[in-house]
Design brief:
The chain is α/β, with parallel strands linked by helices. The chain is built from eight helices and seven strands. The chain has a single domain, classed as Rossmann fold.
Length: about 290
Amino acid sequence: MGRVEGKVALVTGAARGQGRSHAVKLASEGADIIAVDICRDIETIGYAMARPEDLEETERLVEKTGRRIVAVQADVRDIAALRDAVKRGVDELGHLDVVVAQAGIAGMKGEPQWQAWTDVIDTNLIGVINTVHAALPYLDTGASIIATGSTAALMDVAKVDQPGKDPGGIAYMVAKRGLSMYMHELATHIAARNIRANVIHPTNCNTDMLRSEPMYRSFRPDLEKPTLQDAQPAFHVQQAMPVPWIEPEDTSNMVLFLASDESRYVTGMQMRVDAGGYLKWYDYHI
C-alpha cells in the first residue's frame, strides 16, 4: 500500500517544476490527481510559463504510475474556472482529500511594474485562497491542505533600500507572507472539522523560475546580462548548507508527508525545506 493510497489530490501549477513533481510523487504513492495549470504566458513575467504539452507530460507521467488523472488548463486567478476544474475532477475521481496549492510566479523586474505587482499578488496569494475555497466544499474528515510559501516570506527585510523600485519582486514576498497568515488562521478554525492546513517554505528550487534571466539579475544586479554561471555562486547566500538550491523532489517529500496520515496531527505548521536558510536570519526562539 502506498502512503496516500486511495486519496485524490488537487495540485495547481502541475504542468512542470515543483507542481509536476508533487503530482507524480503523490501518484507514485497511490493517489489519483486533479492537475491544474494556466499553460500560457503572463505578459509581465519575464520567463516562459508552462505550455499545454507540459501538462500533457505530467498526465503521461502520472498515468505511468498506474493512477488516474484529470488535467485541466485553468488560471488560479479565476475562481470560477477553478471551481469548474475541481468539480470535473471530483465527478470523475469520486472525492477530494488533499489540496496542494503550488501555482506561483516570480515577477521581479516585471513591466509595467504595478501590473507585475497585481499579477503576482493575484496568483501567489489570491490564487492560493481561490484554490482552497474551490476545494473546501468537497473536503471532509482527515483532509489535508498544503500551500507553497517561500523562504522569502521568512526573511527580515523590514528596511527596503529603494521602495517602489521593483514592485513585482516585492509582491512575491508580500504574497508569500500573506498566504502564510491565511493558512495559519485557516488551520486554527478548520481543525474542528479534523482537516489540517500547513505551509511548506522552500528555498531556491531548481526549476524554470529560478533558471530565468530576471532571477539572475536579482542575484547579480552588478551585471547587465548575467548568466546562470554568473548567478549560481550568489544562489548560495540563501542557504546555510553549502548548496545553491534544492530539487523539486525535496519539497515533494514534505508534500507527501503532509498529505499522508503519518501527519494526521500536524497542522498550522510553517514547514521549512530551506537547507538551513532560516538559520541565517534568526536567533533561536520557541
